[in-house]
From TrEMBL, chain A:
Organism: Thalassococcus halodurans
Family as reported in the entry's similarity comment: Belongs to the CPA3 antiporters (TC 2.A.63) subunit E family.
Main location per the UniProt record: membrane
Higher taxonomy: Bacteria, Pseudomonadati, Pseudomonadota, Alphaproteobacteria, Rhodobacterales
Membrane-topology descriptor: Multi-pass membrane protein
Gene Ontology molecular functions: monoatomic cation transmembrane transporter activity
Name under which the protein is recorded: Multisubunit potassium/proton antiporter, PhaE subunit (TC 2.A.63.1.1)
Transmembrane segments annotated in the record for this chain: 9-26, 65-88
GO terms under cellular component: plasma membrane
Membrane recorded as keyword: yes
Pfam families hit by this protein: MNHE (PF01899)
Signal sequence segment: none
Keywords (A to Z) from UniProt: Cell membrane, Membrane, Transmembrane, Transmembrane helix
Cellular compartment(s): Cell membrane
TrEMBL record, chain B:
InterPro entries documented for this protein: PhaG_MnhG_YufB (IPR005133)
Region (Disordered): 97-120
Name recorded for this polypeptide: Multisubunit potassium/proton antiporter, PhaG subunit (TC 2.A.63.1.1)
Protein source organism: Thalassococcus halodurans
Domain of life (superkingdom): Bacteria
Length: 167, 120
């Protein structure tokens, strides 16, 4: 009983915490007034949006999420330099841009969203579409010799880690 | 001490300017619509990131330091892939790019599936 009341009041507890944190940072203060108003927002906003996000993700391993974030930031730095070099030096005709078809092992929408976002943020690849039943991701690579190598790289480097975090 | 921080700010500004330049240069130079989408993703990550880093160091130096810049970064990282996805979907929808291969598991790509139901 108490659990179901709590679940109705706070449909996404993690989202509530994030909203309080964001509100505190926006105001650059940790005063009681800020926290209380942040908590009010943190209760109202998840309730207003729960209809669009009905399934609560469970069992997320936050430690691994942090190390994944660091890995992605590092990859963004490295890939930025590589792609900047390609853009500045390689003539258009020599660039082999291809579509890459990535079959997905992960099933939860949150994990797939994270994977698609990661692919777009790392320069050189943009995620373009999802298959109609959500088992494949369409990725566009700017300059890839071998589409299969790009696919294997995405699967091993990002998807395997996301599977550990979310499933 | 201030001298070192000033050098750090200058360096961040230079890196940010360089990558935003490469991003917009890529948008001009690349020839196909889907390729051109790769340009702005660079400006949106490392370019803006380095510029915000400079602003953050400066705010801490001048005495009223905030970490609001990290929020800008976080919101940008969350929203940039969405707009890139929308642009890519428009290209697939209107056919202004190479035809994508069939997905290996399901029947069709989500964007194409909408086109198919409209045609029949």
């Amino acid at each position: 009983m108490a659990r179901s009341v709590l679940r109705r009041l706070l449909p996404h507890p993690a989202l509530t915490l994030i909203l309080i944190l964001v509100w505190a940072i926006l105001n650059s203060s940790l005063s009681l007034g800020t926290i209380v108003f942040g908590a009010i927002l943190g209760i109202l906003i998840p309730q207003a949006t729960v209809a669009y996000w009905p399934d609560v993700p469970r069992g997320i391993r936050f430690g691994k999420l942090v190390s994944y974030t660091l890995l992605v930031v590092w990859d963004i730095l490295v890939a930025n330099v590589q792609v900047a070099w390609i853009v500045m030096t390689k003539p258009n005709a020599k660039m082999k841009s291809t579509w890459v078809n990535v079959p997905l092992d992960i099933k939860t929408p949150e994990a797939i969203t994270m994977l698609a976002g990661t692919i777009t943020l790392t320069p050189g690849t943009v995620s373009a579409d999802l298959s109609d039943e959500g088992h494949c991701l369409l990725v566009h690579a700017l300059d890839a010799e071998d589409a299969d190598a790009v696919r294997d790289d995405i699967k091993q480097r990002y998807e395997a880690r996301l599977k550990e975090i979310f499933e | 001490m201030t001298g070192f921080a000033d050098i750090l700010i200058g360096l961040s500004l230079l890196i940010g300017a360089l990558f935003t330049f490469v991003g917009s240069f890529g948008l001009l130079k690349l020839d196909m619509p889907m390729k051109r989408l790769h340009g702005p993703t660079k400006a949106g990550t490392l370019g803006i990131g380095a510029l915000l880093m400079a602003a953050m160091i400066d705010s801490f130096l001048s005495g009223h330091g905030t970490i609001q810049h990290i929020l800008i970064m976080a919101f940008l990282f969350v929203t940039a892939p969405i707009s890139a996805l929308f642009i890519a979907k428009v290209h697939i929808h209107t056919g202004t790019c190479q035809k994508p291969p069939q997905p290996s598991e399901d029947s069709q790509w989500a964007t194409k599936a909408v086109v198919d139901t409209q045609e029949t």
